[in-house]
Amino acid sequence: MSADTIDTQTVDAAGSASRLPSPTSRTSYSAIELYAPNRAPCRIDLSDNTNLWGVPPNALAGLHAAATASVTRYPALYAGALKRALAAYAGVGEQHVVTGCGSDDVLDSAMRAFAEPGERVACPTPSFAMIPIFARMNGLVPVEVPLRPDFGLDADAMLQTDARVIYVCSPNNPTGTLLERAAVERVIERAPGVVIVDEAYAEFVGGGMDGDAGFLREAAGLPNVLVVRTMSKAFGLAGLRIGYATGSAAVVAEVEKSRGPYKVNALAEQAAVAALTTDRAWVADRVRDALASRERLAGALRALGLTPLPSAANFLLVPVPDAEAIGRAMRERGVAVRPFVGLPHVGDALRISVGPWEMLEECIAALREALDTGTRH
Ligand code: PMP
User: Fold this and answer.
1) Helix (H) or strand (E) holding 339
2) pLDDT tens digits for range 120-148
3) Can you tell me whether residue 123 is helix, strand or coil?
4) Report field, pTM of the whole predicted structure over 0.70
5) How much distance in Å is there from the Cα of 237 to the middle of ligand 1?
6) Helix, coil or strand: residue 364
7) Residues with beta carbon inside 6 Å of ligand 1?
8) pLDDT of residue 211
9) How would residue 2 be classed by pLDDT, with cut points 50, 70 and 90?
């Protein structure tokens, strides 16, 4: 009998089916699907909110230099050089910084660090799709709390979950909206456990590279906050997988323990340090380019009769009828965007990353054609 034909279903006295424990997987994993959005290569890829202007120049040079050095040895255990560069960037002591293999890794490690299996993780919806997945992976129970109809944070509803870990994201992915500071502060003041503030897109807030935006520095002085950021977006280093977080020394130490050693590879660390110490002006210029492109794209979408949500990030969420069909039609025209189906308060929508204007012009042309084709059917 092949493995595929082994019947793992059993029926209890009440007649409901349950799964026998499989020797090769955890029962709680059976409901978790592989995260696999359509990432097939596309001529113009506006689907993942990375820096479409490219890699910071000194980071690239650092990468070439590091590649010629020996990689036969392990990298630093906890990426000390990167921590020091990030601490200077954040304006905190290095004991307040933890790094990881992408901010995904930091978020995943934080859940393991701060909640026991079976405890709750509250997160808004719509928000970052990986959060409920990381919660389940760690044996935790995700509780999704709808954002208010104006996409603000429903602080009291989040608190009512009594969750051990509360996750908020500002600017929020996929809506692009900035959460009100007072609402996040209310959650921080009253939460029974740790509050994770995901600021992956913070560099795009306000006029761009606004050091005071968000809670990055403040987190070091708060007992229950972890502010998570990434070098995958504004800093243009998504392929190197560098995430980090700030918090009190005690909070950060717990995440570091849970994350484990050697999570930032030697090449990534060297390039990231170069970006933080010598490419900041380049990054700031690209952030300004992104903000200009975003406003132009919003105008072009409105001219098509669409209404993008106000965004504080490097992408726009724009409601459209039948997002999957439109996303497919745009792909056929060489432009990838991220379709969302049935989002609370939004319905179907496309998330479009901003980039150089020539890319966005092609996106608008592809969208116009896809909408025209859709309405003719
Ligand atoms: N948080 C948010 C809100 C994101 O949008 C993303 C990437 N899409 C991440 C975290 C993870 O980014 P990374 O692992 O590349 O740092």
Assistant:
1) strand 338-343
2) 999 999 999 999 999 999 999 999 999 99
3) strand
4) yes
5) 12
6) helix
7) 49, 102-104, 128, 169, 173, 198, 200, 230, 232, 238, 243
8) 56
9) very low
